[in-house]
TrEMBL record:
Pfam families recorded: TpcC
Record InterPro entries: TcpC, TcpC_C
Protein name, as recorded: Conjugal transfer protein
């Protein structure tokens, strides 16, 4: 009996304890994996999107640069070469010395004119020489352009004149000087100033004169009908600065314009946002008049300043409008214009 009980107890001890397993949450693991893959996808997509945007931006920049270069090339190839051609034509056209042969003139000019254009007969005209020329205007026609030059030239002619001349004459045994009148050919120059119109056509990057050159008088470009620019600050409801502040502003301006006249741009960089200077060309003399007004951001100043030429005692008065702000406790010119109008 005891033996059976003991054997039964040993069998109970040998029984393997059941393993405890945690229940698997299949649903949460599945969503975790999906979340990780979604994050990877979004990061990758953002990276690719940024890459393609940067590539597109670079292409746009290069395209803009190319457009600017092309625009410059077009401007140069369509305008300046034509002007150079016309300038050379003007020089050749007015180069006609005395006793110049028709053949020589024709050979020099025919390269400028279109084929079949009848060249000028110079057999019965006087000589001429160019003094100066400058481009005045350009008129665009349907198939060509008319380049208009302001020209000064001399007409040269030979005229008979007389003069008194002393010649040695023998009187007996002596040689004496005797005055005689002699005729000679005198070169006479008559200056002409006018506009010369040159019709020029462009053909595959080359140029030719396609119609007769013609002359006109220089128009009067001056008029007294313009509106004088004046100080319009009074119309902007701005209040004048106090007397104390007026003195501080004037003191700053005296120092500023002394440096403006004699200093360099590097010097002026400490006093103004966009440095400019006369670089010693003139010397500051005085402030002729000044008005200073309070505005939202600093002080608005309208000032007339007198400068003196270093090589002479001549003076000139210039107008300025300045926007002053404070920088490190000192006045600083944030904007400068060469006028009393506007701000």
């Amino acid at each position: 009996m005891m033996k059976n009980t003991f054997e039964h107890f040993r069998k109970i001890q040998k029984k393997t304890k059941p393993k405890r397993k945690l229940p698997k949450n299949k649903s949460s693991g599945k969503w975790l994996r999906r979340g990780i893959w979604l994050t990877i996808f979004l990061v990758g997509f953002a990276g690719l999107s940024g890459y393609f945007k940067s590539v597109r931006a670079l292409k746009e920049i290069e395209s803009t640069k190319a457009s600017n270069v092309n625009a410059q090339v077009v401007s140069v190839t369509t305008d300046r070469p034509m002007e150079i051609f016309a300038e050379n034509f003007i020089k050749a056209y007015f180069h006609r010395p005395l006793l110049m042969e028709q053949e020589s003139y024709t050979d020099g000019m025919k390269k400028y004119f279109a084929n079949g254009f009848p060249l000028e007969d110079i057999s019965n005209v006087g000589a001429r020489e160019l003094i100066s020329s400058s481009l005045f205007d350009v008129e665009k026609k349907k198939n060509y352009s008319v380049l208009i030059y302001q020209v000064a030239y001399n007409n040269i002619t030979n005229q008979m004149a007389t003069r008194i001349k002393q010649v040695p004459v023998k009187q007996g045994k002596k040689i004496v000087q005797k005055k005689i009148t002699e005729k000679y050919t005198k070169e006479v120059k008559s200056k002409v100033t006018c506009l010369v119109h040159v019709p020029v056509q462009s053909v595959k990057g080359a140029y030719s004169v396609v119609d007769a050159v013609y002359y006109t008088t220089i128009p009067n470009l001056a008029t007294s009908n313009g509106d004088v620019v004046t100080d319009d600050s009074a119309n902007q409801d701005l209040d004048a600065v106090s007397t104390k502040q007026q003195g501080k502003v004037e003191s700053f301006l005296q120092n500023f314009f002394e440096n403006y006249a004699s200093g360099t741009k590097e010097d002026m960089a400490f006093m103004m946002k966009n440095p400019e200077t006369l670089d010693g060309m003139k010397q500051y003399k005085e402030i002729v008049s000044m008005r200073a007004y309070n505005q939202k951001q600093g002080v608005l100043v309208k000032v007339k300043v007198s400068f003196t030429d270093k090589q002479s005692s001549g003076t000139d008065v210039e107008n300025f409008t300045l926007d002053l702000s404070k920088k490190e406790g000192q006045y600083f010119v944030s904007k400068l214009t060469h006028t009393l109008g506007g701000n």
